Records
---
Amino acid sequence: MDSLDRQVLEQARDWLNGRRKVWIVTVIETWGSAPRPPGALLAMRDDGLVVGSVSGGCVEDDLIERVRTGERVDRPSLIVYGISKDEAARFGLPCGGTLRLVQEPLLDVGWIDQILDRTAKHSLVRRTLDVGSGRWSIETASRDEVFSFDGQVMRSVFGPRWRMLIIGAGQLSRVLAQMAQVLDFEVTCCDPREEYHLTWDIPGTHFTKEMPDDVVLSMQLDAHCAVVAVTHDPKLDDMVLLEALKSPAFYIGALGSRGNTAARKDRLALFDLTPQEIDRLHGPIGLDIGSKTPAEIAISILAEIIAVRNDVKLLQKKPSKKASSACAT
C-alpha cells in the first residue's frame, strides 16, 4: 500500500479513537490535468486538520472551509470541482481539469483495522463501498485490479500491487529497497552469500538466502514484478537473469558498464534464451543522471522502472557500446 494512503488511514483511525469527527475523501474520477489520480485519499478532522491530498491545492482549502462552516455530511456524498474553466482555475485544476470526490463520514475503524492488518502481512485487499447505503466490505483482491467507481459502488485496492526482487544485499540494495517501498513495491532481497545476508535489516522487506534462480521460480513472477540484479557477481546475476528473462516481469535490469552488459548478453546467448528475451534486459541499469552515490544510483534505477511501468519512452539513457562506436567513426 502506498505509504501516503497508510498514513491517511492510520491518522484517521487515531482521530476517531480520540473522539473526533472524521471524514474520508476519495478521488473517484478526473478529467483533464487533475493533479491526483483516482483512489487518492484525504482524511479531514472536524476542526479542519487534514492529512493526505486530493488536489495538492485549493480543493483542500475549500473542503476545510465547508467543515468549519458546518457542512458536515453524515453519509457518503459526491462532490464535483472544476465544471467551468473559471472554477477549475480557482481550484488549481490546470487545463480545465475536473475532479469528482466521494466524501464519507468515518463512523467506525473496523474497515481501516482490517486493511492495515492485512496489508501489513503483504496481502492485497479490496474495499467495496456502496455510496448510497454506506455499506462496505473487505475482500482479497488480485494484482490486476485497480480503483473503480460505477456511479454507485466504489472499489478501492490497498496493498502491494507491485513486487520487486533485488539480487544482492549490498549498500545500493539497502537504499533501493527503502525507496521502492515508498513507491508501493513489496520488496524481496535475495543474497546467498554469508557475509551479506547477516547484515540485512531493512524493515518491511522479505529476505532469502536461496539461490536466485530458485527464488524467481518460487515467486512466480508476473507482469507486476521488477527484477534488479546488483551483485557485480556474474554467477549470481546471470543465474537470476536466465529465469527472469523468460518470465512476464515488466522490468529486468542488471548493474554493470556498457562493456559488461555486452559481455553478459553474449553469455546469455549461450543458453536457452531467444534474442527477443535477451533484448528485454535493461543495462546499463537506470537512467543517465550522472549518479555516483548509492542513493543517486537507486534513484536512477527507480526512475527507469517507473518509466517502464508507465510505458514512457526512455530518453535519458546512455548509448549502447555499439551506438557509441558508430558515433565515433
Note: The first strand starts at residue 22 and ends at 31.
---
Amino acid sequence: MQFQLKFLFLLLPGMVLGQETLTLQQAVSLALEKNYAVRIAQKNQQIADNDNRLAMANFLPTASATFNQNNNYNLKFVQALRGNPGQPLPEPRDFSNTRNSNLTYGATVNWTVFDGLGMFIAFERVAEVQALGADNTRAAIVNTVAGVSSAYYNIVQQKERIEAFQSALAISGQRLELAKAQYEVGSGSKLNYLAAQVDFNADKSALLLQEQQLRNARTNLNQLLGRSPSTNFDVRDTIIVTPDLNLDALRGEVFRANPNLQLAQRSRRLAELDRRLIQSERYPQINLFTGYLHGNQNNQAGFLSRQSSDIINYGVSASVFLFNGFNIHRRAQNARIIEYIREDELQSLRIELESGLEQSYNDYLNAIELIKLEQENLNIARQNVEIAFERYRLGVSTALELREVQRNAVATESRLIDAAFNAKLAEIELLRLSNR
C-alpha cells in the first residue's frame, strides 16, 4: 500500500489540492444564470411579453397632431388687373418686398371598428407568440440542464477511469520493483525486468491520456457554464442511476409536457392564425374619424389680407378590395399549405419522440442489467489480480499471465464505468423528453 501511494503521489501532479468542488446543483444553477442559450431565450421571451402588452392597442383609436408654419417673402410681385370693356385699365399693383404667412395646426382621431375580425386574430396571434417564447425558454432550460448533467457525469466517468488506470499502474509499479529486485540479485532475467518496464510505461501513458480526457471534459462543462475554459474544479459525486423509471408514466409526460412538442403545437396554431388573418382582408374595413383644424393666413399681397378658420370634421369611411390580382387568394392558399406542413411536422415529431423514448428506455434497462453483470465480473477480476500477483511474486506464474489478468481487470472496470455512464445518459434523456 505504501508503494501504491508513493506512485500515485509522484505520477499525478495534476491532482491539485484545494481546488473548487462543484456539485451538480451548483453547475445547473450557474448554467441557468450564465448559459448564453438560456439568456438569449429569456430575452426573446421579454420581447414577446412586451408585444403582448401592446397588442391591445389594435383595438384603440389612433390620434395624431399636425402643426405647420409657412412663410414666404415676395422680392418682386406685380399684379395687373383685367379691366371692364370700354373702361380704362386699372393701374398695376406692386406687392414687391411683401411677406405672406400661413399657420395651420390640428388633430385627427381614427378608429377602426371592423376589419374582418383581423384585430382579434392579430391579438390572439400575439398571445400565441408570447406562449411560444415561454416554450422556447423552457426548452432552452431543459436542454441546458440535460447538457450540463451529461457533461458533469462525463467528468465523473473520466475520474473513475483514472482511478482504474491508477490501480493498474500501481500493480505494474509493484511488478517493476519486484522484477528489478530479482534482476539485481540474479534470480530474475533482464528480459523480465525490461518487459515490466515496458508494461509500466504503457500503463503510465494510458493514465496520461486519460487525464487529458478529464481536462477536456472539464473544459466542455466550463463552456456550458459560461465561464473561462481554464477554470479548475473537482467533482466528488459518483454515478447513481435511478432504478425504477416507468415507461408508461414517462410516455404520458412526454405527450403532455415535452417542450419541443409544445413548440410544434404553437407553430401549427400560428400557421392557422396567419391563414385567418389573410382571409380577413377579404372583408370591408370600416373606420370612424374626427378631427379639428385651425388655419390662419396673413397676406401682404393679394386681395385677402387676413383669413382665419376653425374646422371640425367627422365621418365614417369604408373600403374593400374588389380585385388585387388574386394576391389574397394566393397568400391564403400558401398559408393553408404551411398549416398542413406544420401539422405534418407535429405528427412527425410525435413519432420521433415516441421512438426516442422507447430507444432511451431500452438503453436504460440494458445498461442497468450490464451494471449488475459487470459489478459481479469486477469482483471476480479483482480477486484474480490479487491471486495472480501473489503467484507471480512466488514465481509460480509468469509475467504474461499476470499482465493478461491485469488487462482483464482494467477492461472489466471500464465496462462497468461505461455501463453506469450510459445508464445515466439514458436516464437524463428520458427526463429531458418528459420535461422532468
Note: DSSP finds nine helices and eight strands in the chain.
